[in-house]
Design brief:
single chain, two-stranded antiparallel ribbon, 1% strand, globular
């Protein structure tokens, strides 16, 4: 379009209409958009009532420009506050001995170094916001209608929930379904969706409230491709509320064209129009706050039309859509709170500041300066990967179909290899929870007994379940159980999520993880409740140190102590709902400087008249209430972040740091991204264990900690993990049918226990064993189970070729029947379940192996007797049992 420049009279009129709040560039951009719209109407021949159309468009553009300008000013103010806070945090990390890159990574991922605020990161905030939204939502349901926790997977209830949500609008009819449970859940979902929206707007977004919003939309690109673009457009067009979906489009033909573009965008992940990068223009990092408020939403006529679309072209259910929506909101809120409305730009700006600091530092040699500056690039490397993981970009597929296929191949390998994973978790998780307890000053043995005792009671019920949910723990398996049935569609790709969810329930890992995390979370909350009776200065040094890692200082601790704790089963629990109930008088000391600055800015004392003073006082009162609300929210998030992060030290899960290692910042759906994910499969736990548990043991103590203290912690950890490994070895031998237990004084037994327990992590697979802890080869450990299985298949083919060729030319070669049996058994989903595999061995596999290789079972029993003094306590085959 030709460039349009308004004359001075038009410019002055627009400037006056805006109250002088818009810049020349903003006013000229608005005029340019009007001129472009006029040219488009003329090109389309749509010139009837052209003046009225341009006037209506100009009014909309004027309002949008005013809002954009106001947001820009607000973002600038927020960025100043965030930058000051970031500079203080990074400076503190540098003073504590971190390198500039480590200091910046700590802001996003946290650090295992024992520095103040080292665990107070975007990653910890993400966990805290998830607990604030999803945990509190589940706690609400658990407290008020506990029967719904399992009933939410019912398709009829799910459909009624969507119908009820669509009625939450002006003129709506709540209760239209006659289902009180659905009406209740719809109200809860709407309440927490609104909480996340207001949180994001407070942090700089501008998300309008959608009346009758029934949850996030889902699109199954496989179904869409199968139907074809024209069929998809025709079907969707009939179901949409066109006025709400396309408020800026008047003609049906334009709406159809827009839908065709939307189809392409959903299927390919790329917009139809050439990007700025494709056109060779400068590309700015996306402003997260702005992007949250401007995505195109497909508004359906009613809930039944939305349900029909989901059945035809979507997936999931209302619950899964709401959980996904709240998780995305939590990630966005965490990034915006820590890094401002535009996280990428702020992250890059801080990196540039550190580069400048290194360049100007007279104490650094030119070589050191060059190294530090090179490591601070945000265009690639560790910092780029960290921010992409933080914002979620690294999880967004480039090619959705390729990513789904790769994910499902890995799911097959998981179901083929992890049938006995719970046997390792049963012992190992208790030890890591005990080690985390010891680090907080509560003792290894005390932590071990508390964790085991809690798990013995099973998954929590009643108030204990509500407390765990409020802390954001103990319900992931339940959510997976609710969501998985709706994830399946007509193709094998969609059904894999359901199969994997069933598999992990069958192998016990889902129950175990939920129960373990619930116990760990409640233990930490009760520990805080117990410690709250003590002033900050009188706290045990270890506990005070851990509070400091999460940036909980004396002022915050004093506020936490004033909460009315939950009393349950004779214990006091610190929970976020009680922190939210703290009165203003408790919160005010935490935000005293901000309140004082707001009062000064309001100029109340400079007012000349009572009316002016009253007006300014009202403005200040409103601002003070907002500041107190921010302080209360920040304290709640501090408590939630502390508990969530400490739980992850006790019950290990993949975190931002280990995800950076296992993905290298590569997105799924690309050759490189899928390759690294195949290679990294089954390595997430050992890497997370090494980085979190090992890193804390080596580097996490404060500078005042004694060498003896850190050595005792490491010793207890290694001893505990080795004993856990021994118990796992005993349980696995028992499952295989061998008894008595291996001699614990035998060095070979202890070496096996050391490896199995995870004390050496993945590296033990290479150093001490021909096979890894999942029964695979060293190649499988290095290259991942899928690549290992592919290599085994190729080797099997080559041996089969040699055997066939040998028969033809008269040179005998042994047919690889045994290898074929092992390959099939080792890659069959479900065959590895710890209670299925012994039955398969007894009924089929052992007889087959003995037939292929006569004397196989006898040789195996001889080796067991010689190496471990064990004998088989049950028959190995059906024929042996019948003798």
């Amino acid at each position: 379009m030709a460039k349009y420049t308004p004359d001075e009279a038009c410019f002055d009129a627009a400037n006056a209409a805006s109250g002088g709040k818009l810049t020349r560039e903003e006013i000229e951009a608005a005029f340019q958009r009007i001129a472009d719209h006029k040219a488009k109407l003329e090109a389309d021949g749509d010139t009837t009532n052209l003046g009225d159309k341009l006037k209506a468009f100009a009014e909309r553009e004027g309002e949008r420009t005013r809002i954009a300008a106001a947001m820009q000013r607000r973002h600038a103010a927020l960025n100043v506050l965030v930058r000051d806070r970031l500079d203080e945090t990074v400076g503190r990390h540098l003073e504590a001995g971190l390198t500039p890159r480590q200091a910046l990574l700590a802001v996003v991922e946290g650090t295992q170094r024992g520095v103040r605020g080292g665990r107070n990161s975007v990653a910890a905030l993400n966990l805290a916001y998830e607990a604030r939204y999803i945990g509190a939502l589940m706690a609400d349901i658990q407290a008020n209608r506990p029967h719904l926790v399992d009933a939410l997977r019912d398709p009829k209830l799910d459909a009624d929930i969507m119908r009820e949500m669509s009625e939450l609008k002006n003129g709506g009819k709540p209760g239209i379904t006659g289902n009180e449970d659905a009406k209740y859940v719809a109200d809860v979902f709407a309440r927490f969706a609104e909480l996340s929206r207001t949180d994001l707007n407070r942090l700089g977004a501008s998300i309008g409230k959608l009346d009758g919003w029934a949850g996030a939309q889902t699109h199954d690109d496989v179904r869409m491709i199968a139907a074809g673009k024209d069929a998809w457009v025709a079907s969707v067009f009939r179901k949409l509320d066109l006025t709400r979906t396309f408020p800026d489009i008047a003609e049906p033909a334009e709406a159809l064209e827009a839908l065709r573009d939307i189809f392409d965008t959903i299927v390919t992940g790329l917009p139809n129009k050439p990007s700025a990068k494709e056109k060779g223009q400068r590309v700015n990092p996306a402003n997260l706050a702005k992007s949250l408020g401007k995505s195109r939403v497909l508004h359906f006529r009613d809930a039944d039309a939305a349900l029909a679309y989901r059945d035809e072209f979507g997936y999931g259910n209302t619950v899964s859509g709401m959980i996904a929506h709240l998780r995305n909101a939590a990630r966005a809120a965490a990034n915006m709170q820590a890094l401002g409305p535009n996280p990428e730009v702020m992250f890059g700006a801080v990196a540039e500041g550190l580069k400048r600091r290194a360049k100007d530092d007279p104490n650094l040699s030119p070589e050191v300066k060059a190294r530090q500056i090179a490591k601070l690039t945000t265009d690639g490397g560790a910092l780029r990967h960290a921010i992409d993981i933080s914002t979620g970009l690294v999880s967004r597929p480039v090619n959705v179909t390729a990513a789904k296929i790769g994910s499902d191949i890995r799911a097959v390998q998981s179901m083929a290899k992890l049938g006995g994973a719970v046997l390792s978790s049963v012992t190992g998780d208790n030890v890591t929870a005990a080690a985390a307890s010891m680090f907080r000053g509560s003792g290894f043995f005390n932590g071990l007994v508390t964790q085991i005792g809690g798990i013995m009671k099973g998954r929590p019920k009643g108030e204990q379940a509500e407390i765990a949910a409020l802390l954001g723990e103990g319900f992931d398996g339940l959510i997976g159980h609710i969501v998985a049935p709706a994830a399946a569609n007509d193709g094998p790709v969609g059904k894999m999520a359901k199969l994997q969810e069933i598999f992990f329930r069958l192998n016990g890992l889902t129950w175990w993880t939920d129960a373990s995390r619930s116990v760990a979370g409640r233990t930490i909350a009760a520990e805080m409740g117990m410690r709250a009776k003590t002033a900050y200065s009188a706290l045990p040094a270890n506990y005070r140190h851990v509070l400091g890692l999460h940036d909980i200082d004396a002022a915050k601790w004093n506020a936490i102590r004033r909460a009315e704790f939950r009393e349950s089963n004779g214990r006091s629990y610190v929970t976020p709902d009680r922190v939210r109930d703290l009165p203003d008088t408790v919160i005010e000391p935490l935000v005293a400087k901000r309140v004082a600055a707001a009062r000064k800015a309001s100029r109340i004392d400079e007012a000349k008249t009572p009316a002016t003073r009253a007006k300014r006082q009202a403005v200040f009162d409103e601002r003070r209430a907002a500041i107190l609300g921010d302080g209360r929210r920040e304290l709640e998030l501090s408590v939630l972040g502390f508990i969530a992060d400490e739980v992850n030290f006790g019950i290990i899960e993949t975190d931002a740091r280990s995800r950076r290692t296992t993905t290298l910042g590569l997105r799924p759906g690309t050759i490189a991204g899928e390759t690294i994910r195949f290679i990294s499969q089954f390595k997430s736990f050992p890497i997370a264990f090494t980085q979190r548990v090992g890193g804390r043991a080596l580097y996490g103590f404060g500078k005042d900690a004694s060498y003896l203290e850190s050595t005792a912690h490491i010793g207890s950890l290694i001893a505990g993990m080795t004993m856990a490994g021994y118990l796992t070895v005993v349980m696995k031998d028992l499952v295989r049918g061998y008894w008595p237990p291996r001699d614990p004084t035998d060095p070979k037994t202890m070496a096996a226990a050391f490896i199995q327990g995870g004390a050496f992590g993945l590296y033990g697979d290479f150093l001490f064993s021909q096979t890894n802890r999942f029964g695979g080869s060293v190649l499988e450990s290095a290259a991942g189970p899928t690549i290992g299985a592919a290599a085994d298949l190729i080797e099997l083919g080559l041996k089969s070729r040699d055997a066939t060729a040998g028969k033809i030319i008269g040179e005998e070669a042994k047919a690889p029947y045994a290898e074929a049996v092992n390959l099939i058994a080792g890659n069959t989903p479900g065959a590895s379940l710890f209670y299925i595999r012994p039955a398969l061995d007894f009924l089929v596999l052992n007889s087959l192996r003995d037939a292929i290789s006569p004397g196989y079972l006898r040789r195996q029993d001889t080796t067991r007797r010689k190496d471990y003094g064990q004998t088989r306590f049950r028959p190995a085959t059906v024929s042996e049992a019948l003798r």
